[in-house]
Structures are given as C-alpha cells and as structure tokens.
Amino acid sequence: AGTTITNVTATNTASGNISIVDTAGGLNVSTGGVNQTGTGTVGITATGGTLNVNDTVQSGGAGTITLTATGATSDVVVATTKSVTSAGGNIAINAPRDITLAGTGTVITSGTGTLTLRADSDSSGTGAINANNSATAIQAGTGLVTLLAAQGIGAGTTITNVTATNTASGN
Asked: What secondary structure, in 3-state letters, does 51-106 show?
C-alpha cells in the first residue's frame, strides 16, 4: 500500500507480510524498527527518496527482506549500530545511488539465506557500496553474497561465497 509518511515502525507477530511503499520522497525506519516475528516477508520502499534505516529491520523466520530506494539521487543507509537481519531468509537492498552501512551498521543472514546489495539499481552509472567500517559489516552463512555497484565496492565481510561486480570506475 502506498503511504506518505516520514517515519515508520512496524511489528508483525502472526503470519502475513509487512509491505510499506512510501510515496513522500524519503523514509526513516524509526525507534522500534521493523520486526517480522511471523512467517512473512518484509518489503520497504522509499519512492523518490532515501531510505534511512535508523533502527533494526529483522525477520525471525525465513522470510525475505527487501529494502528499496527509488529516484536518481536516492540511497539506502543503515545507521551505525543498526542491523538488517534475517534468520535464514534472503536479504536484498537496492538503491539508484549508494548503499552505506555506517560505522558498525550490519547486514546479516544465516543458513542458506542470500544477500544481494545493488547500488546503481537504475543502471545510470552512479552508485557505490560503502560497508568497510567493520570486518563483520556483511555476514552470511552458506548463501551467496552478491555485491553490485557502478562506482566501487568497499565491504568488510564474514562470508563463504561472494560475487562482486564493479561496472564502471572506482575501487
């Protein structure tokens, strides 16, 4: 459902999905975070603006977490000490520009869950992944980790399998 909000906190303790599509030009995951303790998925989209993860987004089951920002100058930023975490489900983070895990911010899944971080999701030739402030910024069990960016990838990881693609300039 499309909404026009600035800050979001959500919890689902039963079955079903958490799906938030903000159309106001940017969205903040606020104090309390987004918690899926049921069996569903989590999908959060900031349409036309940056998605700031200022508190933890988590799935206690194997449901997929998808975080998306849209708009040419939009980023996804996970704040320091905050986490995007799944207990074995897949995690996908998509931004037209940058994906940043600030300070000790993390993205973590376990088991066979996969991680896909895609900066430059609009294929405009801009976008980087900045996740190198901690050796454990990106963590996965045995699932594949895919990092895609046009202008550089800096990542501290604790993973078994990784595929990284840098399509333009940068490190």
From this structure: EEECCCEEECCCCCEEEEEECCCCCEEECCCCEEEECCCCEEEEECCCEEECCCCE
